[in-house]
Fold Winged-helix domain-containing protein.
Amino acid sequence: MFNILLGNIYLQHVHAVVMETLAWLHLPTCIHTPPEERRIFLIAPNAHQSGPQEVEYALVKNGYRVQRITSQQDVEKLSEGVEIYHVVVYGWPDNSREHLRFLRDICHKTAPFLVIGDSTEADSGSIAVAAIEAGAAAFIPWALGEGLLMAHLRRLADEMTIRRMELAKLPGQIQLDPRSRRVSIFGHELYLPKQLFRLFEYMVTHPDEAISYHQLLQVLAEGKKIYIAPNTLVVKIYRLRRILEDTGVHRWLETIPGFGYRFCPPKHVTRLVEQSTQ
């Protein structure tokens, strides 16, 4: 009996290793959605069961970066202000609402989430109702396969793009294209390196808001727990101002001594940003 138990534990461990290895071997080399938007948080308290592993494998195989949330400690380890674009919940466990609330508090916004129905659950109907009433974008029975999950994720990505484009109704003043990282400012076409584009995009979409060094360092880190020296941010803001000099917009990037920066366009200029993926 003891040998059988050890054998089952060993097989579960090997299964997990094989699933993760195969997922990375099948990672697509061409991803059209911005990489930062392909990060998915997978809430699954029993992550070592076959169901959550199959979902994670399907996500990674389709080019997503998956971060598991199995307990409250996993949520508390996340950096303040981390960008969370999509959340997938497997099986709607009892603490799902708490995990989602903590994720919202950490990233300062409500991220859309999908709920995967466990095919072994006898009361999947009531689980679906509870998930939808809690705000889930969709309830997806896993028995229907990964195609439906990927279709819903593409729909959420399209809706996110549309919301970005609706940020402004005055095209031709400042236009941002997140995919190509091109910026059009009063007729001037600019291309910004990745980190400079992220800084500029964040500041422009938070006009007249005092943004701390910590917030901007988190933008540079893309939610990862890596150390970035404070002087790195100073250098990048300096480079950004130099690039923007010909447009005059560099004057709108104000330094707040001892705190951070603020993007202050003239008061008569409102809703001046149009984000596009054309």
Remarks:
- The longest helix spans residues 2-25.
